[in-house]
Write a structure and sequence with these properties.
This protein has 838 residues and is an alpha/beta fold. Helix content is 69%, strand content 9%.
């Protein structure tokens, strides 16, 4: 029986929503926040046990569109049934409808039988907030009740023990006065004191006292004989009953012994039929160790293929760069030299161009001055003065332009040259504006000589600048040829592009060598693993042969299958051997029990001189004879006692005797009451002791299986950091043992580690419940959210183990968690939260 579908017709924020396609083992339900994961978890519990009301004190999940209505669909190979719960009184009426197969009106009782709602919430359907409740007081009570239900009990043994302790305390309590036994003892002490006073008063009557004494002396041996006969009759009756019990027990023991000996014969025959390959079994530890590396080997094969493909691709790109000069190399020094030549050539070009322009300006001014000198003196001087002003202003503007261009392009030499030209033009302009007028002829002649000298100086400077540029260009071309960098021309940008391609080619060669070396390392490691596999794989026809890597995985699969088959056969044989040893032990124990029972019969035979094979008839006859003699003696004792009573009546005419008799009768009543109360107290205390012994035996024999499972799962989740744990059935306290030997209680653990512990306890507990709640699904709401990646892998293994025993529905909003669960748990299904047709 499995839960196949969860439907929310109207439930909280959900309307006409469902989850379907749930698997028999693990189903991972993936949905974002506020998609209804927690609501579906609560809905499942509420359909099974009832909707929340004012008494439950939890979220009501009421719907804004109408009364709450939800449905669970369960199925097995014989049919399909829907459990519907509608809103209404007593937490909502529930009905079971048959969708396919036979009618099952009691299906809900079959599903939840033995599991309370609180038990389901804590153990079967829980989220991150309910994890820690398994260790709380309520959780401890739930665990105890589930243990009781798993053992076939209707009540929690710890509740019974507490009630017995309470009843025993009502019977007797040391140094108290209210319990029944204590009160009876106090009253008996008062009565004894009163009787002693009355007996002292009666001692004054001598004659009657003497007769009374003789009667009392006579009745003492009679009572002693009566007590002896009563003991004898009781002993004979007891021995007769012991004989009957021994004969019945002996018959039962002999029947069980015959069945056990038959089972021993059958087990020995079964052990002989199982053949275990001892060669594989001898190599099992080494082979298991090697096979643990099979997934890594498969990853290495994929890595080798990827690396070799990368090597081929890198070498192909290197071959595409075959047009690059082989002798050329890229280096920091070459890049620095290229940048240096670029800056120097740019500066010299700017300087040469500026010098040529200045020479042209100077020559133009000199020619203009000569033309002016040919004109009349006054007019010529004026025109010359105006021309000089224009030329000076133009020189200043040109200098500013050259300096600005040099600053913008980062050419320091051009910026300096422009500044110099600007300064010369400004000085000339200021000089022309402030100088005194000279005689026209002298001024024109001096100006003509100066302009010619300036034009010649500017031309010489222009020639030198052009020569320096030409020398540097020749040096640049020579440097390029020396370093084999002239492939793409002499432009610095082209040379830089060539250096970039050279650097890329060098990096590709380094990458190719690195990838090839890494591929070789991976191949060597894979081959080493194959060698180890072949060394321990001594049972196959490939023993001693080194297979190619491509077929090594197949060899590993065959080895794993053979190992699993051998381990399974060995486990089956070991189980049969354990059962055989247990049967032999049981046979030996039954034989000893038969011997003990026969010794009882022999003892009765010797004690009463009767037949040891069937002593009961003779013992019954002896018992009847003893009873008859006892009745005769009782009659005589009653006669003597009656006479003594009459005498006491005479001695107590004032009422003392009656008072004493009344007090003695009251004393006997109190003694009987005290005896009954003491018997009840002893029975109740004995029951408490028996319950304690049963609990100790449970913790010793059955609980260790639960705890061992939880400890194994917890150790796996924590990668061996914690190796064991202890759980007390009455206190519920959980103590974990770390790998370094230290002990911690759960409150001393981190939140993630404590949640891993609680998850492990649930796996162990659910695994021990057997058929209890077998058809109830286990719902987990994102319980691994606080686990790190390594411990999440351990939690996945725990969920996988639980899914092998029960149907598990795991809700999560983390796609990576869903991927890990679906990819790691065999047969796991993935369901996404979305609307579906109802």
């Amino acid at each position: 029986m499995k839960l196949e579908r969860i439907e929310a017709l109207r439930y909280g924020a959900l309307e006409n929503a469902c989850i379907e396609g749930l698997g028999q083992g693990l189903t991972v339900v993936l949905g974002p926040n506020e998609s209804g994961k927690s609501t579906f978890t609560a809905l499942t519990r509420h359909v099974l046990y009832g909707y929340p009301d004012a008494r439950t004190r939890e979220v009501g999940y009421t719907s804004a569109t109408g009364p709450r209505a939800a449905r669970l669909v369960f199925a097995d190979p014989d049919g399909e049934w829907a459990v519907d719960r509608l809103d209404g009184p007593k937490r909502g009426p529930v009905t079971v409808r048959t969708l396919r197969g036979a009618e099952r009106p009691g299906l809900l009782g079959e599903l939840v039988g033995g599991v309370s709602e609180q038990s389901y919430k804590v153990v079967f359907g829980f989220g991150i907030d309910e994890l820690a409740e398994i260790e709380s007081a309520a959780g401890n009570d739930i665990v105890g009740r589930l243990y009781a239900a798993g053992a076939g009990l209707g009540v929690n043994p710890m509740d019974v023990r507490a009630r017995l302790e309470q009843l025993a305390g009502e019977r007797f309590m040391a140094r108290a006065s209210k319990p029944a036994v204590n009160a009876n003892v106090a009253q008996m002490r008062e009565l004894r004191d009163r009787i002693r006073v009355l007996e002292d008063e009666a001692a004054r009557y001598a004659g009657e006292q003497e007769r009374l004494r003789r009667l009392d002396e006579e009745v003492v041996p009679l009572k002693a004989r009566r007590a002896e006969l009563e003991a004898q009759a009781i002993g004979l009756e007891r021995d007769a009953q012991r004989g009957e019990d021994a004969l019945e027990q002996l018959a039962e023991i002999e029947s069980r012994l015959a069945a056990t000996n038959s089972e021993i014969t059958e087990l020995e025959r079964s052990v002989d039929l199982i053949a275990v390959d001892e060669r594989i079994l001898a190599n099992a530890p080494a082979l298991s160790t090697v096979l643990e590396g099979a997934p890594v080997f498969a990853q290495r094969l994929e890595r080798i293929a990827a690396l070799e493909a990368s090597v081929d691709e890198t070498r192909r790109r290197i071959r595409q760069m075959s047009e690059l000069p082989e002798a050329a190399t890229d280096s920091v020094e070459n890049r620095t030299m290229v940048d240096s030549y670029r800056d120097r050539l740019a500066a010299l070009r700017a300087e040469s161009e500026a010098a040529a322009r200045n020479a042209e300006f100077a020559e133009t001014r000199a020619a203009g001055n000569d033309a002016v000198m040919a004109e009349p003196a006054g007019k010529a001087a004026k025109r010359r003065s105006q021309g000089l002003l224009v030329v000076s202003a133009a020189a200043a503007v040109v200098g500013v332009a050259i300096a600005g261009a040099g600053l913008l392009s980062g050419q320091v030499a051009a910026a300096v040259l422009g500044g110099a030209v600007t300064l010369i033009g400004l000085i000339a302009l200021i000089a022309l504006l402030v100088r005194r007028p000279a005689p026209v002829e002298q001024s024109l002649a001096a100006e003509a000589a100066r302009l010619k000298a300036d034009a010649k100086a500017q031309r010489d400077y222009s020639i030198r600048a052009a020569q320096k540029l030409s020398d540097l260009e020749a040096e640049w071309l020579s440097w390029l040829a020396d370093h084999h960098l002239e492939k793409f021309g002499s432009e610095s940008a082209a040379v830089r592009q060539l250096l970039e391609q050279l650097r890329e080619r060098c990096q590709l060669e380094v990458d190719a060598e690195r990838l090839a070396a890494e591929a070789q390392r991976e191949r060597s490691a894979a081959e080493d693993w194959v060698v180890r596999l072949v060394d321990v794989h001594s049972f196959d026809e490939t023993a001693g042969q080194l297979p190619p890597l491509s077929v090594a995985a197949e060899l590993a699969a065959r080895a794993k299958a053979a190992l699993q088959r051998t381990i399974q056969d060995d486990a089956e044989r070991s189980d049969l051997m354990r059962r055989l040893d247990a049967s032999k032990t049981e046979s030996h124990k039954l034989a000893k029990m038969a011997t003990v029972v026969r010794s009882v019969l022999q003892e009765l035979s010797v004690r009463h001189d009767v037949d040891s094979m069937d002593p009961v008839p003779r013992l019954r006859a002896f018992s009847i004879a003893a009873r008859e003699e006892l009745e005769r003696l009782r009659t005589h004792v009653d006669e003597v006692s009656s006479e003594a009573s009459m005498l006491r009546g005479k001695l107590n005419e004032d009422g003392r005797g009656n008072e004493m008799a009344r007090l003695r009768q009251q004393m006997e009543g109190l003694r009987a009451s005290a005896t009954d109360a003491a018997d009840a107290y002893v029975v109740q205390k004995l029951a408490v002791g028996l319950l304690d012994r049963a609990r100790e035996r449970f913790e010793r024999e059955r609980q260790p299986e639960v705890v061992r499972t939880a400890a194994r799962v917890f150790s796996a989740m924590t990668q061996g950091r914690y190796t064991d744990l202890r759980v007390s059935l009455d206190s519920g306290e959980v103590v974990v043992l770390a790998a370094d030997g230290t002990q911690r209680i759960s409150s001393q653990l981190s939140r993630g580690t404590a949640e891993q512990l609680y998850l492990a306890l649930r796996v162990g507990l659910i695994g021990s419940l057997g058929e209890l709640g077998r058809s109830l699904p286990v719902l987990m709401d994102d319980v691994v959210v606080n686990f790190d990646p390594e411990r999440r892998a351990g939690a996945v293994a725990a969920v996988s183990e639980l899914a092998a025993m029960r149907q598990v529905v795991f809700f999560t909003c983390h796609p990576e968690t869903a991927d890990v669960l679906v990819g790691s748990v065999p047969g796991a299904l993935l369901v996404t939260l979305e609307r579906c047709a109802l």
